Amino acid sequence: MKQIDIRDFTNYHYPTIFTPAPDGKHAVMAVVDANEKDNCYESCLWLYDMETKKTSRLTSGKKERTFIWMDSETVLFIADREKAYQEKAKNEEDWTCFYTLNIHGGEAQLAFAVPYKAVKMKKAGKKLVLTVKYDYNKPDLSHMEEGEEKEAALKAWKEEKDYEVFDELPFWANGQGIVNKKRTRLAVYDPENGSCEIVTPDYENVENSWVEGDDTILYVSSLYTDKKDVYQGLKQYTISTGELKTLVEQKDMSIDYACILKGKVTFFGSYMKEYGFNENDKLYTVEDGKVELLSDYDDSIRNTICCDCKFADGASAIHDEDKIYFIATLRKQSVIRTFDAEGNMETILDRQGSVHTLAKSGNTVYFTGMRDMGLTECYAFDGNRETKLTSFNDAVMAERSVCPVEEFTFTYKDLELDGYVIKPANFDPDKTYPGILTIHGGPRATFGPTFFHESEVFANAGYFVFFTNPLGSDGRGNEFADITGKHGGIDFECCMALTDEVLKRYPQVDEKHLGVMGGSYGGFMTNWVIGNTTRFAAACSQRSISNWVSKCMTTDIGYYFNMDQIKADPWNSPEKMWQHSPLKYVNMAKTPTLFIQSDEDYRCWMGDAIQMFSALKYFGVEARMCLFHGENHELSRSGKPKHRIRRMTEMMEWFEKYLK
User: Fold this and answer.
1) Can you tell me the mean pLDDT for 625-632?
2) pLDDT tops 90 at residue 620
3) Rounded distance, CA 550 to CA 617, Å?
4) Residue 482: CA atoms inside 13 Å, Cβ hemisphere, count?
5) What is the CATH number of the domain that holds 221?
6) pTM, two decimal places
7) In a domain, 275, yes or no
8) Is the pLDDT at 148 greater than 90, yes or no?
9) Number of helices and strands in the chain (H, E)
10) Total count of domains within the chain
């Protein structure tokens, strides 16, 4: 058996979605693979035959990922294979090419192109509903005729490349870059006449959309021209008439999913009044402008199991005429649940693991997910039995030494918490080993006994790896997850209580050689740990938070989410913000600390990592920072392959230096 090493994530395969054909006889999957040589990710479409149970590659262009079924034998997908349109793109024009492919053979054919950057598509009868990116700063070159006017517009646009003008909040967003005066909009494409018309209002940002039948679009949006607020509206657009109707005003709710059940618009949403912006959704209906509570639900409606080796393009909630099917996180696993039109909830699949995306055909629910400490595969659940459909990762996993996750519970301040420990590979009970406490992000995320590449790499390198879900984590309802105004308090205590428990249960862990690491909120906690205890011999703080005062006015979510979570702002309660800032306590830090940061991380901007790093150096504490150009908050999960390798190499060498 080979030990799992840093580069092994480049050997994994990542099915992102499983979509059955209308007749249920086949399904198409998008599968992503890492290409270390070219430092990129490639994606192709694969075909699954429901009768023969065989999987075969459908495309080989290495850029096919977004697709839909046009009929039971034809797939429509987005690609950029046409030289003419590639030239248009070089000249700053926005075009998207769509191709059709018969699943039984033949070459893909260019079906049409639209003068927008389309990122999603849905079928609505004979028409298509496209989700497109729209830039109000940019001249509409794609709709201009060739000539002096177009040349002048292109020249003026290129001359603006050296400048960024901000007049909105947020002006940048993680994973999207500069978003000032940029919106996501909906367009309807009519293949009969080739028209493609944007149907949503100017400056309205579409957060999500769903097609009902052949003629109706439901969508959630936020309209703004100065400062984007936290509220969203729910609208209904009728394709045949062009009528746009507001169902829920954009004034006091966040909305995540909407559909029509038994003729009534039903949606997941939150008023965010009791637990703030992180409050779990409840189920509502709306009729004639009146919103009514259908189910006083308390759990999450999404998968929050932490993972650094998945890509998930599919839906986390779907529906048929009778029920909504959705993913929920329960303590240490994600499950599949349903709600009917009367608000009755049922858990239909409850098994240890992580469910990523959902689809449905007939009475069978299909999903991508992780089972039995394995990587992502595609599965079917017929109401009685779960069946594994694909084996993309069986060969690589059969050759690797996967260290199991051991589970236990412990009590801290009358609260039962979950503890997880991964022993080192080839564990010898008569030896001692260094240990690493890893803290998840969020804080509304969840660790469970599922495959996590980073943890497996360290366990295979001879470390104990241990973790918990402290107060603030997801999976146990709103009250457990609510640590607003308490960051660095009870959550820190839970992590230290876990460390004490691990040392008690596993005497082979060397308490003199302990490390701590985490990213995002976990990076905040790592920064907090080194300023409030000296029990750790080394630390790695990633995409971290050190100063709430500066973070709230420099990041994409800082001006609303961070101030809500800390229950303070820089003008009325700066003392409280500083009290919860790790930078306040850095003068007491002694722990050698590595900082991993991306310069395009607009969720946890590099200013916070720089402040913490500089302060440690100022006080004479060993510190190192590795800043990744062109990466964002997702470096550890979807950063360029070579960058992910360098990140893990930095971490491994740091802990090897101080813990061994």
Assistant:
1) 98
2) yes
3) 20
4) 14
5) 2.120.10.60
6) 0.97
7) yes
8) no
9) 13, 40
10) 3
Distance CA 479, CA 279 (A): 9
DSSP characters for 517-569? Answer: EEETHHHHHHHHHHHH----SEEEEES----HHHHTTTSTTIIIIIHHHHT--
Q: To the nearest whole number, what is the mean pLDDT of the chain?
A: 97
| Residue 416: both structure tokens together | 């039962």
Question: Measuring CA to CA, which residue among 537, 535, 540, 557 is closest to residue 548?
Answer: 557
User: Same domain, yes or no, for 422 and 510?
Assistant: yes
Structural domain that includes position 259: 118-136+181-292
Backbone angles phi, psi at 574, to 5 degrees: -65, -30
CA 206 to chain centre: 18
**Per-residue pLDDT averaged across 258-287, rounded?**
96
In a shared domain, residues 320 and 420? no
Look at 1 and 8; give whichever has higher pLDDT.
Answer: 8
Q: Answer for the pair 434, 510: CB distance below 8 angstroms, yes or no.
A: yes
pLDDT of residue 143: 86
Give the CATH number, domain containing residue 563.
3.40.50.1820
CB 597 within 8 A of CB 626: yes
3-state secondary structure of 264: strand
- Give residue-wise pLDDT tens across range 26-36: 999 999 999 99
Pair 85, 218 in one domain: no
Cα(502)–Cα(44) distance, rounded to whole angstroms?
Answer: 44
* Residue the block writes with tokens 């998930």: 312
Task: List the structure tokens of 640.
Answer: 């360029």
**Burial class (CB within 10 angstroms; exposed 0-12, middle 13-18, buried 19+) of 258:** buried
pLDDT > 90: what percent of the chain? 96
Q: Which residue intervals of 301-450 are DSSP H helices?
A: 394-398
Strand arrangement of the beta sheet that strand 96-102 belongs to: 67-71, 74-79, 96-102, 109-114
Instruction: Decide if pLDDT at 145 tops 90.
Output: no
With 90 as the cut, is the pLDDT of residue 447 above it? yes
